[in-house]
Amino acid sequence: MRKHVVFSIAIVGALFAASQFLLAAEHIVGGPFTVKVSTRSATVAWIVQSDEVTLTGPTAETLSSPTLRVESTTFTSLKPYTRYEYNISSAGDAGKGSFKTPPTGSEPYSFLVYGDNRTRHDVHRRVIAEVMKHAVPDFVVQTGDMVENGNATAQWPIFFAIEKELLRQTSFFPTIGNHERTSHYVEDIFNEGARYYSFDWGNSHFTIIDSELTTSASNDSGRQAFWAEQVRWIEDDLKSHQKADYRFVVAHHPPFTAVTSRQGDNPHMTALTVLFEKYHVSAGFFGHDHNYQHYLKNGVHYVTAGGGGAPLYDVNKPPESITRKVVSIENFVNVSVNGNIAHFQAVAIDGSTLDEFDIESAS
Ligand SMILES: [Fe+2]
């Protein structure tokens, strides 16, 4: 009997040691960050690496890729316009962060717009270092192309490692870019059930568009159906938020461009500008072009801020009559909304101000 008990204790001990070994291999490689934030609720998410797989082929090169798992938890019954601190209990300092819920009225708030962080990690790192010299925004709008290939598991921890200090202090609203491709990671990581969506923040309404037609369906008729359905949704969304002081739209592909080789590339987005004008959109934010561009057409501002790290493109043919500013440099845009004035500041990677303007709300 005594032998049996000792044997059982040994087994339990061995299993405990094995489980500790497995747990020891797990660590956070993304986040924490907060998504789907509203006046009443928020989801805290983080990405755990549970293991790593190496791949050896006929050449000397060995590839390695992590196994990732997205964890998240959703809080409800929150108070508007309140900062919350969170703590993932098993993660120590790596699991601490904070976020702010939006106001219900016209209290001041700020947000950051940037995009195209893929490819040159050193430049992406310098852009984020410059972002962190400014006040941390209440939330971040990323205009797409977070990684070079959204299906490549190993690329996501690189993106999140560079963004870590920013994202643990704010909320994140993603946009689909062409480099996210058909990746399931975007939906998984950011808890978004749809590739296009909208949200409210104080006196403003944000409409996030999925302009990536190429990977939206496997054939042309499928792509046309996807876009027709989305355009109907965009019109309904803008029409039903006419009482907001500001309407901001976000998409990866810009309707206008100063990059000669890309002019006329996105007729589906250029056609949408009719709706933007009809429903009094205050400003649109875009990426895809790796530079800074600002246009003003029929009362709508169009800002391309695709300077988050990817190789720069020339701005060699600015569209006549609508161009306010075009510069080929890495950048991001800070927006501060205070009542009926929204102040825009485009900042270059070297900290200099590229462009600065105000939009007064109609109301
Ligand atoms: Fe792109």
Written account of the structure:
By secondary structure, this protein is α/β, with parallel strands linked by helices. The chain is built from 6 helices and 18 strands. It has helices at 2-25, 121-131, 155-167, 185-190, 220-239, 267-278, and strands at 27-35, 42-56, 62-75, 83-87, 96-100, 109-114, 139-142, 171-173, 197-201, 204-208, 246-250, 283-286, 292-297, 300-305, 323-327, 331-338, 341-348, 353-360. Strands 9-10-11-12-14-13-15 form a 7-stranded mixed β-sheet, covered by helices on one side. A 6-stranded mixed β-sheet has the order 8-7-6-16-17-18, with helices on one face. The protein has a 3-stranded antiparallel β-sheet with strand order 1-2-3, with helices on both faces. Strand 1 (27-35) and strand 2 (42-56) form a beta hairpin. Helix 2 (121-131) packs parallel to helix 3 and helix 5 runs parallel beside helix 6. The chain starts with a helix and ends with a strand. Mean pLDDT is 92; it is low at 15-23. Bound molecules: fe (ii) ion. Fe (ii) ion (FE2) is lined by residues 145, 177-179, 252, 288.
Q: Structural class of the secondary structure composition?
A: alpha/beta
Biggest sheet character: 7 strands, mixed
Query: What small molecules does this complex bind?
Result: fe (ii) ion
Q: Total number of β-strand segments?
A: 18
Strand order of the largest sheet: 9-10-11-12-14-13-15
Rounded mean pLDDT score: 92
Kindly estimate the percentage of residues that lie in beta strands according to DSSP: 25-35%
pLDDT < 50 stretches: 15-23
- The number of helices is 6
Proportion of residues in helical segments = 10-25%
Alpha-carbon Rg, integer: 23 Å
Which oligomerization state do the chains in this entry correspond to? Answer: single chain
Name the shape in a single word.
Answer: globular
Distance between the termini: 83 Å
